[in-house]
UniProtKB/TrEMBL annotation:
Naturally occurring in which organism (per UniProt): Pseudomonas veronii 1YdBTEX2
Entry EC no(s): 1.1.1.79
Entry protein name: Glyoxylate/hydroxypyruvate reductase B
Keyword vocabulary terms for this entry: NAD, Oxidoreductase, Pyruvate
GO (cellular component) term, any one: cytosol
Gene3D superfamilies attached to this UniProt entry: NAD(P)-binding Rossmann-like Domain
Length: 324
């Protein structure tokens, strides 16, 4: 008898067709009623879950008696109660690496947009305000040659650093849990404390995973250490930044600006950030390209198939539960 897979989001008809070669597939459909009700009804039958964007822990999974694996179509896994999955012996997989370059592209799009006031001046131009050459009040700031600070020098951080150093001749400073000697040699990057980075960098790019240690890593004190001319870029997770503190820093022009793809609450329907011309706000699109989302989905599908067919998944977050 085939095992059952519950596919709950970001699942294309092509993926369902591939899954059906090996498994029974249940895919909640909004046309058939409440998605949550469909999910909860199917959960007790599921040996595997695949999708993203749903919080899964003890309360949500208690009835999933057959569950063997949760395959997340994401790099981050802060939506999942890993300790509970470990307790249950349920495998958790993610999709690292495949979104590195796309997310780094977006970091630089935010950086450039914030520095050169692209979104603000686009709206200004479309509103018919361009009646003469722009004056100093609408000038942006240069990117080339400025100091780029990377907080969290993992794969994505390194990809951002390469764009800055090799593309824009930017000196690189970085902070994190460990030094990256090969990257220091490649890019001339300098390892330093977070406080030193904040004081020196013209652009501060956050690329850390969310944990209790990094929650509100950037708050009033840290924003106070930044240059008044500096710009903050957040492509990590929203709660890494104390959002009210950032809003205050932007309103008072304590820092020049911010480029944000993530927020403490998502989706973000209403926020003082939307009223600020020095904040570029995007709807969490770090990996949102056709190519990358397809690659992520395929990677998640491969992880799921491996787990349910008795093989060790390539991207196992909690290897201690592997019984192979």
């Amino acid at each position: 008898m085939k095992k059952t897979v519950l596919a709950f989001s970001r699942i294309t008809p092509e993926m369902i067709e591939r899954l059906q070669q090996d498994f029974e597939v249940i895919a909640p459909n909004p046309k058939l009623g409440d998605i949550n009700a469909q999910f909860n009804e199917a959960l007790p039958h599921a040996h595997g879950l695949i999708g993203v964007g749903r919080k899964l822990g003890r309360a949500q999974l208690e009835g999933a008696s057959r569950l063997e694996v949760v395959s997340s179509i994401s790099v981050g896994y802060d939506n999942y109660d890993v300790a509970y999955l470990n307790e249950r012996g349920v495998m958790l997989t993610n999709t690292p690496d495949v979104l590195t370059e796309s997310t780094a592209d977006l970091a630089f799009a935010l950086l450039m947009s914030s520095a050169r006031r692209v979104a603000e001046l686009d709206a200004w131009t479309k509103a018919g305000e361009w009646k003469a050459s722009v004056g100093a009040s609408l000038f942006g700031c240069d990117v080339h040659g400025k100091t780029l600070g990377i907080v969290g020098m993992g794969n994505i951080g390194a990809a951002v650093a390469r764009r800055g150093r090799l593309g824009f001749n930017m000196p690189i400073v970085y902070s994190g849990n460990s030094r990256k000697l090969a990257l220091e040699q490649e890019l001339g990057a300098q390892f330093c404390s977070l406080d030193q980075l904040l004081a020196e960098a013209d652009f501060v790019c956050l690329v850390v995973p969310l944990s209790e240690k990094t929650r509100h890593l950037i708050s009033h004190r840290e924003l106070g250490l930044m240059k008044s001319s500096a710009i903050l870029i957040n492509i990590s997770r929203g709660p890494v930044v104390d959002e009210p503190a950032l809003i205050e820093a932007l309103q008072t022009q304590r820092i020049r600006g911010a480029g944000l793809d993530v927020y403490e609450k998502e989706p973000l329907a209403e926020s003082p950030l939307f009223q600020l011309s020095n904040a570029v706000t995007l709807p969490h699109i770090g990996s949102a390209t056709h190519e990358t989302r397809t690659a992520m989905a395929n990677r998640a599908l491969d992880n799921l198939r491996s787990a349910l067919l008795g093989h060790r998944p390539q991207d196992l977050v909690n290897p201690q539960v592997w019984k192979g």
